[in-house]
Design brief:
Length: 161
């Protein structure tokens, strides 16, 4: 089986917000996604402001290749949680270092998207932005293990606010 390779070029970058990838309290974080004006016409975002949320695909660009996980581990290093495979987690030290986040779209100003709750840091390369549509929400029952609820308990909190 031959290995396929894809070259991705960022369509923009995250500006503002956090400068470090801290695990929790992302709910109130505000930032701007600046889309690359050399890759988009000014009307590329036309109609986007009608949506309340967007999905953002990005690169965990500060994750060192040396710490990429290809097997299993205890999430956040917590031995009281079960050892699970990297594919059963949303950790940033994944093989392709891709992140996916759904965040609130606050405003659209040309190629600048103001967002809240994007769990990416200042300077993060953005690979794609899509409007969130309720029809893409999961269908049927959603299940997940108890440890994952505990892990996510403060992830979207507002911190000290």
């Amino acid at each position: 089986m031959s290995e396929e390779q894809f070259v991705m070029t960022p369509i923009g970058h995250v500006r503002g917000g956090r400068t470090a990838a801290i695990d929790d309290d992302w709910g109130g974080e505000r930032a701007v996604i600046e889309l690359d004006a050399t890759r988009f016409d000014p009307d590329a975002t036309l109609g986007l402001a009608e949506f309340s949320h967007i999905e953002v695909v990005f690169v965990f660009h500060l994750v060192d290749e040396e710490i990429v996980e290809t097997g299993s581990r205890h999430p956040r290093g917590r031995e009281d949680w079960p050892r699970v495979g990297i594919i059963a987690q949303r950790a940033r030290n994944r093989r392709n270092r891709l992140g996916l986040s759904r965040c609130r779209l606050l405003a659209v100003d040309g190629l600048r998207l103001s967002v809240e709750g994007l769990d990416a840091i200042n300077g993060t390369p953005v690979l794609d932005v899509k409007p969130y549509m309720s029809e893409f929400a999961p269908r049927g029952e959603i299940r997940q293990p108890a440890w994952s609820h505990e892990l996510m308990a403060r992830y979207w909190s507002l911190g000290d606010a």
